[in-house]
Amino acid sequence: MSVLDSHIPEGPLAQKWTNHKNNINLVNPANKRNIDIIVIGTGLAGGSAAATLAELGYNVKTFCYQDSPRRAHSIAAQGGINASKNYQGDGDSDYRLFYDTVKGGDYRSREANVYRLAEVSGNIIDQCVAQGVPFAREYGGYLDNRSFGGVLVSRTFYAKGQTGQQLLLGAYAAMNRQINRGKIKAFNRHEMMDLVLVDGKARGIIARNLVTGEIERHSAHAVVLASGGYGNVFYLSTNAMGSNVMAAWRAHRRGAFFANPCYTQIHPTCIPVSGDHQSKLTLMSESLRNDGRIWVPKKKEDAEKVRKGELKPTEIKEEDRDYYLERRYPAFGNLVPRDVASRAAKERCDAGFGVNKTGQAVFLDFGSAFERYGKEKAYSSGHKNPSQDEILRLGKEVVEAKYGNLFQMYEKITAQNPYETPMMIYPAVHYTMGGLWVDYNLQTTIPGCYAAGEANFSDHGANRLGASALMQGLADGYFVLPYTIGDYLADDIRTGKIPTDSPEFDAAEKDVKDRIDKLMNAGGKHSVDTYHKKLGHIMWNKCGMARNAEGLKEAIKEIAELREDFWKNVHIPGEANNKNSELEKAGRVADFLELGELFAKDALHRNESCGGHFREEYQTEEGEALRDDENFKYVAAWEFTGNPGDAKLHKEELTFKNIELKTRSYK
User: Fold this and answer.
1) What's the topology of domain 266-429?
2) What architecture (CATH level 2) is domain 503-632?
3) What is the 3-class SS of 302-371, one letter each residue?
4) Would the pLDDT of 478 be above 80?
5) Contact 65, 245 (CB under 8 A)
6) Fewest CB within 10 A of the end CB: N or C in the chain?
7) Coiled coil: which residue ranges (predicted)?
8) Is the pLDDT of residue 1 over 60?
């Protein structure tokens, strides 16, 4: 085991990033046009990085498996993006955003990176406004803000319930400008199959054209991985069905350490599972917790009647409702962090108070918001004695203006009108805080290989606060990577083009083709989805919201056995040298079957509870996460050794010089 060096700059926290930028190497504009960079993934992190790097003068190649960068999963981030501009005048600052993020991550993130994230957050909003992103505005024309979980201020900028989509369109427009200039060559419907190393440096990729099946070689002086997270290892998640870990995992197999894989976020406000037929879950934005109140019946008999359809939620009196988050966490109420809200919902449902047919749901109710907003709207309109009907009508109009598309989406999926009856929600896998280990420059343990956005182990520690994913993705792509990658590329101004006819490219392409042949010739009878679903059941039941040593040991054994069976008995129809979506899925599931084992191994070794990693053996008397700072105050970075079960642990010790290390409290 080694101790990792994150290359954090010296000096005071608030000056580290400025001093670092002033001292790192630069690349002359005339030399940038002689340097090639590959960017994998064109969501917010990849799209913003590609556009910015091309604007600086580098030659950029982008790769995405979708038919357009606009299809990236970033569009599903509905609720908003954080920034410490303090437009509300409620006491926000860079330091408070930094503090909330470190605390929200249960003190398992790197101070220097998180402060930099807070420091550049305001620039992101300015950049996106300049691009024309239609952020919501107040009456006077100023940008509006709302609150998200884990904070006591309003710092979340939003565009109704379409924030991710609007931000992605801004990055996509910036990309298109560079495509039109010839500075970006876009390879859509291409999937990275392997990373190519030459003399120990990342010098290109092997990609598969998903339309023709052709295997292609692409070289560059550096490779940026911005391919998102690995939540689909659980099969059912809020991720797009195509979201996968392939790019990051193939880099891991080539030597990039994988950090904290067990840190996975369970989002509290998702539409509950309705049956075994489902292939994905749908997220209801956390922004709804601004105005929606979460509750279950106080009496078990009422909950049973609701489950049987004998009692409607609107028929349960106010005094018979348990607003359990407001009861348990009075300071933050319904806006506690996601891991806290998710475990609280699970506790109530496990205790028998769940409200859907399976007993795995709680209510998200907007009745109080309709009344509050309705009275305010009536009063400001001159109606001093409005009727109850008028209050509700006006209140629903206000809520529709703020969340209308989310309400519409809920009704389309569930066939229930959330204006007339409370929504039903339950936690589901959403975001992954683990990912490729990177240093302060966002470089992995492979020289020349960088990771941005959700693909890296990020700035979020053991739990991500809501509206911080978009912030981190755009911070990395617009304002961090374009500076730091130059420090590495300054040594390549005389290198010249990287040839693709080298022995290293030959060997990597052979590995890819051999792997594809092995999948196609397995000759089994079980579909890829069969294995993915089985893996998902193991992961959810034994590595999900609550974990214990016995279950994790069982998961490691079961996943290894499932992986062995997969390679012997999977059936993939069609041909390799053609369009073949089943082959695409098979490659991704093969990686998930390796990642899943490492995930369980990481969770088993971490004998503590922190953030999204909740070990049942380590909790307080009140059921809260119980950290062990003496023994586990570090990033766990795993080195691939040929088998996930034999992965080698490396540690990056975390130091806290600017924040007091203490037990999280949202009460």
Assistant:
1) Flavocytochrome C3; Chain A, domain 1 (3.90.700)
2) Up-down Bundle (1.20)
3) HHHHHHHCCCCHHHCCHHHEECHHHHHCCCCHHHCCHHHHHHHHHHHHHHHHCCCCCCCCEEEECHHHHH
4) yes
5) no
6) N
7) none
8) no
* 275 pLDDT above the threshold of 80: no
Angle at the Cα of 73 from the Cα atoms of 183 and 229, rounded to 5 degrees: 95
pLDDT for residue 392: 96
Q: Do the Cβ atoms of 210 and 584 come closer than 8 Å? A: yes
Classify the phi-psi angles of 163: left when phi > 0, otherwise alpha if psi is within -120 to 50, otherwise beta.
alpha
Give the burial class of 192: count Cβ atoms within 10 A of its Cβ; 0-12 exposed, 13-18 middle, 19 or more buried: buried
Condensed to tens digits (0 to 9), the pLDDT of residues 549-573 reads 999 999 999 999 999 999 999 999 9
3-state SS, residue 260: coil
CB 291 within 8 A of CB 361: no
Q: β-pairing, 215-219 with 201-209?
A: antiparallel
Segments of 79-189 assigned E as strands: 81-82, 156-157, 184-188
Query: Could you give the CA distance from residue 468 to residue 148 in angstroms, rounded to a whole number?
Result: 10
Distances, alpha carbon 160 to alpha carbons 72, 80, 295, 406, in Å: 19, 8, 25, 9
| Strand, helix or coil for residue 73 | helix
Please state, in angstroms and rounded to a whole number, the distance separating the CA atoms of residues 253 and 50.
25
Rounded to the nearest integer, the mean pLDDT of the chain is 96
Backbone angles phi, psi at 158, to 5 degrees: -150, 160
* Three-class SS of 413-432: HHCCCCCCCCEEEEEEEEEE
Kindly state the tokens that stand for 155.
């710092």
Average pLDDT over residues 573-583: 96
- Give the integer Cα–Cα distance in Å for 484 and 462: 25
Domain ranges in the chain are 266-429, 503-632
Cα 503 from Cα 512, distance rounded (Å): 14
Are 266-429 and 503-632 in the same CATH fold?
no
Q: Which residues are catalytic?
A: 338
pLDDT in tens, 318-358: 999 999 999 999 999 999 999 999 999 999 999 999 999 99
Instruction: Tell me the per-residue pLDDT of 487-536, one tens digit each, with 9 for 90 and over.
Output: 999 999 999 999 999 999 999 999 999 999 999 999 899 999 999 999 99
**Strand-pair category, 449-451 with 222-225:** parallel
- Tens digits of residue pLDDT in 75-102: 998 889 999 999 999 999 999 999 999 9
DSSP assignments along 170-208, one per residue: HHHHHHHHHHHHTSEEEEETEEEEEEEEETTEEEEEEEE
User: What is the rounded distance in angstroms from the CA atom of residue 366 to the CA atom of residue 161?
Assistant: 16
In terms of Cα–Cα distance, which of 505, 482, 498 is closest to 36? Answer: 498
238 has pLDDT over 70: yes
Query: In this model, does residue 2 exceed pLDDT 80?
Result: no
